[in-house]
Specification:
The chain is an alpha/beta fold and about 425 residues long. The strands form 5 sheets. A 5-stranded parallel β-sheet has the order 4-3-2-5-6, with helices on both faces. Strands 16-15-14-17-18 form a 5-stranded parallel β-sheet. A 4-stranded parallel β-sheet has the order 10-9-8-11, covered by helices on one side. The protein contains 15 helices and 18 strands. The chain has 3 domains: about 25-155, 2-Layer Sandwich (Aconitase, domain 3); about 160-245 and about 255-270, 3-Layer(aba) Sandwich (Aconitase, Domain 2), CATH 3.40.1060; about 270-420, Aconitase, domain 3, CATH 3.30.499. It is about 30% helix and about 20% strand. The mean pLDDT is about 95.
């Protein structure tokens, strides 16, 4: 019987010879567990068990300090110190301290999310690794604590949704516009506990594009969002030092059964924005009018890669951020920042008036730097616009592509980048 990606992966990782079907509970052994600044809280749940049993495998955890970096206060610094002490005591092999980057970008850059692997993480955007053909999903802190001790958990096999893509993205239209359009169409819970597979004409979608799309799978409720292993994947993995024989890609069979199929012609997409206070409140930029913004934000694990920064710099080159507005730029990792720096992209953004932050999460969740004040409005390339997301429940957040944010930053108000 033809199987979907998720059905094949869970059968493989669960050792179920007869295969699995949607709704079936499967005990699986994960390849890695991601945690970040929340590691201190997670290990606090099992301090006694850690003394008795230790960590299941020193290679299993991946710990990245990224949410509030550098430490904003004594409490945060103490939290980071606890994590470093845990790493040293238990000999954790995959630890990345403040400044290395946002956890999801770092996991992919370091070759820890390989095709055919199963990655669990105590962060909802762990689904990002589906860009590299991994089964990747978030778990809560209690589950993460259990995984540190055992390396195993159970998952329910999800139903699957097939998204067929054709055509090529027009100029000034980004993969962010694609994923926002999908979320707007099926709603924020339209793919709840489903595996969303992307099929079709994928050659034009770069790895950065795929990371953007997979990252926001959870914003439509998906358990995972995944792309096939193809020449784009091979090229990226070779770039980071991973050879083909290290990969065990998995993909859906022809004729597999899906709960739903969606078709998108990339060439027909337009710049869109998600309006407050839900990610599925999506409208065409040209229809929204000249909404004035106080702050513009380009970056995060969704759109903080070199490709995104370069696209913004191309628009901002020789121009200035509008008076009365502010622009924040946050690279997804040190590696992405260094490429942007060497190519002159950071200089262009800075000369345009952007403030460059260290690679981390801070402003995205309102934890550190870039918080909004009551009554303010921000146009952001991040993945969430919930009330209070950027530190203030009385502020508004709109989500859009780097191109739309850069063009709008020049105008000080919402602007379709195709108008430049």
């Amino acid at each position: 019987m033809a199987k979907t990606f998720a059905e094949k992966m869970l059968a493989l990782k669960g050792g179920v010879a007869g295969g699995v079907v949607p709704g079936q509970l499967v005990t699986v052994k994960a390849d890695h567990l991601l945690t970040h600044d929340n590691t201190a809280a997670i290990i606090g749940k099992i301090s006694g068990d850690l003394e008795t049993y230790g960590v299941v495998d020193k290679e299993f955890p991946v710990i990245v300090l990224d949410h509030v970096i550098p430490a904003v206060d004594e409490k945060t610094a103490t939290n980071h110190k606890k994590v470093r002490e845990f790493v040293k005591r238990f000999g954790i092999k995959h630890f990345y301290d403040c400044g290395e980057g946002i956890c999801h970008q770092v996991v992919m850059e370091k070759g820890l999310a390989l095709p055919g692997s199963l990655i669990l993480g105590s962060d909802s955007h762990t689904c990002s690794y589906g860009a590299l053909n991994a089964f990747a999903t978030g778990v809560d802190r209690t589950e993460a604590a259990s995984l540190l001790l055992s390396g195993e958990t159970w998952l329910k096999a999800p139903e699957s949704i097939k998204v067929n893509l054709t055509g090529k993205l027009p100029k000034m239209v980004n993969a962010k516009d694609l994923v926002l359009q999908i979320i707007g169409d099926i709603t924020a819970d339209g793919a709840t506990y489903c595996a969303v597979e992307f099929h079709g004409e994928l050659d034009e979608l770069t790895m950065a594009d795929r990371m953007t799309v997979a990252n926001m799978g959870v914003e439509m409720g998906a358990k995972i969002a995944v792309f096939p292993y193809d020449k784009r994947t091979k090229k990226y993995l070779k770039h980071i030092g991973i050879e083909e024989d290290q990969c065990n890609p998995v993909w859906a069979d022809e004729g597999a059964t899906y709960r739903q199929e969606l078709d998108y012609d990339l060439g027909r997409l337009e710049p869109v924005a998600a309006c407050p206070h839900t990610v599925d409140n999506v409208k065409c930029v040209k229809e929204l009018g000249a909404i004035v913004f106080d702050q513009f934000f380009i970056g995060t694990c969704t759109n903080g890669r070199y490709q995104d920064l370069k696209a913004a710099a191309k628009i901002l080159k020789g121009k200035k951020v509008a008076a009365g507005s502010r622009l924040i730029v946050l690279p997804a990792s040190r590696a992405e920042f260094e490429v942007a720096l060497s190519e002159g992209v950071i200089e262009t953004l800075s000369k345009a008036g952007a403030m460059i932050l260290p690679a981390g999460c801070g402003p995205c969740l309102g934890a550190h730097q870039g918080c909004l004040a009551p009554g303010e409005r921000c146009l952001s390339t991040a993945n969430r616009n919930f009330k209070g997301r950027m530190g203030c429940k009385d502020a508004e957040i709109y989500l859009a592509s780097p191109e739309t944010v850069a063009a709008s930053a020049i105008a000080g108000k919402l602007l379709d980048p195709r108008e430049l």
